[in-house]
Amino acid sequence: MNPTPRQAEPSMPSLRAELRRAHLTLIVVSVVLAGGLLTALAWGALRTHAMHNLQLLSRTVGYTVEAALVFNDKEAATEALNTVLRDESVAEVRLFDASGQPFAHWRAQAGGLWSEAAQALWPTPIEMALERDGKVLGRLFLRGDGSELLRFLLTVVAVVLGCLAATAWLALRLGQRMMGHIVGPLQAMVEVAHAVRHDRAMHRRVPAAGVAELQAFGNDFNALLDELALREAALEQENAHLAHRAEHDALTKLPNRAAFDHALEAAVARAHATQGQLAVLFVDCDRFKQINDTRGHAAGDAVLREVAQRLRAQVRDNDIVARLGGDEFAVLIAPVRDFARVHGIVTALEHAMLLPIAAPEGPPLQMALSIGVALYPEHGTSASALLHKADNEMYRVKRQRAQVA
Ligand SMILES: Nc1nc2c(ncn2[C@@H]2O[C@H](COP(=O)(O)OP(=O)(O)OP(=O)(O)O)[C@@H](O)[C@H]2O)c(=O)[nH]1
Asked: What InterPro entries is this protein classified in (predicted)?
C-alpha cells in the first residue's frame, strides 16, 4: 500500500507539532521569567518601602515614650504606646530602660494563621537606642506587622499573573494564526503532491496561500503540475497511437493478424464458457497479383482498401474484420445463433464484390473473393484449429473455382 503523508514516517513529528511545541515552550519560559522577575522586583520595592516606614515609626515611638522613660512612668509609657500604635502596622514593641530591664510592652491582637504567615515575610525587627543629650534612656525593639504587606504583595502577584496570562493567551492566538498561514499551505502542497504521485490526480492544484513566499512557491508548484499534466496527456496520446498501430494494419486501418488472434482466442473462450457458437471466415482475393503486375502497386492498394471496407460493411459492429497480410482477410462472427446465417454472410460478401472498384488510374477493377468457413465447435475448438480449417476451406474453394475457370 502506498504511504500517506502522515503515515510516511510515523516516528517523526509533524511540522505543526514541532512549531507548536517550540512556541509553547517559548511562551511558558517567557511568562515564568517575566512573572518571577516582576514579582521579585515588586517584593524588593515593597520591603524597602516598609522598612523605611518602620524606621520612621520607631523614631516617632521613641520620641513619644522619651518623657515616660525620663520620669520612670511605666503606665504613661504603655498608654503612649497604645495611642501611637493603635492604627499602625506593628506586631510588637518592647521597651527597656537604661539598665536593660523591661519597661513597657505592646502587642497587636493575634491575627491567626494569616498574621503568622505575614510575620514570616517581614524583615528583622528594628532595634533602636533611645538617647537624650548623649545619655542612653533605654532601648526600643519594634517588630512590624506584615499583614498589609502580604496583602499588597498578593495583589501585585495576582495582577502580574493576570497580565501574563492575557499576554500568553494573545501570543498563543497570534502563534496559531501564524502557524495556520505557514503550515496550512505546506500541508496542502504535501497532500496535492501525494495525490498526484500515488493517485495520478493530475487535476489537483494547491490553493492560494496568505504568505508571499508560499504563494510564489504554490504558483510554481501548480505551473509544474500543469506542465506535467500536458506531458502526461501527450504521452497517453502517443501510447494510444502506438497501441493502435501495434494492432492495426496501416493500409486498411483494420485490425492486424495479432489483434485478430487475440480476439479469436477470447471469443473461443467465451463461446466455450457460454456453450455458444462462432464462425471464422478466411478471405483471399483472387488473382490479386495480376492487378499489382498490370495496374501497379497503387491500384493494388486501392483494391485492398475497398475490399476491407466492403467486408466491414457486411457484418455487425461487434464482428471483427482483420487483414491477416497481403491479400488475405479474416472475419470473426460471434456469437452465431444459426449457422445458416453464416452462409448468408458469405454470399453477401461475394455479392459485395460484384461492383467494380475504382482505380487511381485507368478503368475500374473487378475483384472476386475465395472464402473458407470454419464453425465452432463443429470444425475445431481452438483458435488455431479454426483458422487452419478456414484457411484450408478457402483453398478448396479457390481450387474449385480455378477448375471451373
Ligand atoms: N498492392 C499491394 N500488394 C500487396 C500488398 N501486400 C502483398 N501484396 C501482394 O499481393 C500479392 C499476393 O499474392 P498471391 O495471393 O500469391 O497472389 P494472387 O494473385 O492473389 O493468387 P491467388 O490467391 O492464388 O489468386 C503478392 O504479389 C504481394 O506482393 C500490399 O500491401 N499492397
From this structure: CHASE8, DGC-Regulatory_Protein, GGDEF_dom, HAMP_dom, Nucleotide_cyclase, Rev_trsase/Diguanyl_cyclase
Question: How many residues does the structure list for the chain?
Answer: 405
Segment holding 221, helix H or strand E: helix 212-247
> Could you identify the atom of ligand 1 that is nearest to the CA of residue 328?
15
Residue whose C-alpha is closest to residue 261's, from 320, 217, 204, 307: 320
The answer to whether the bond into 3 is cis (omega within 30° of 0) is: no
Instruction: Please name every residue paired with 322 in a beta bridge, in sequence order, or none if there are none.
Output: 330
Distance CA 31, CA 174 (A): 16
pTM above 0.80, yes or no: no
pLDDT band for 14, please (50, 70, 90 cuts): confident
**What separation in Å is there between the alpha carbon of 370 and the centre of ligand 1?**
14
Rounded to the nearest angstrom, the distance between the alpha carbon of 284 and the centre of ligand 1 is: 9
Q: Reply yes or no on whether the pLDDT at 286 is more than 50.
A: yes
Tell me, using a 6 A CB cutoff, whether residue 286 lines ligand 1: yes
Q: Burial, 370: exposed, middle or buried (Cβ in 10 Å; 0-12, 13-18, 19+)? A: buried
- Nearest residue (CA) to ligand 1, atom 16: 289
**Which atom of ligand 1 is least distant from the CA of 251?**
31
Identity of the amino acid at 76: A
The interface pTM score, or ipTM, of the predicted complex is: 0.96
Q: How far is the CA of 379 from the centre of ligand 1 (A)?
A: 28
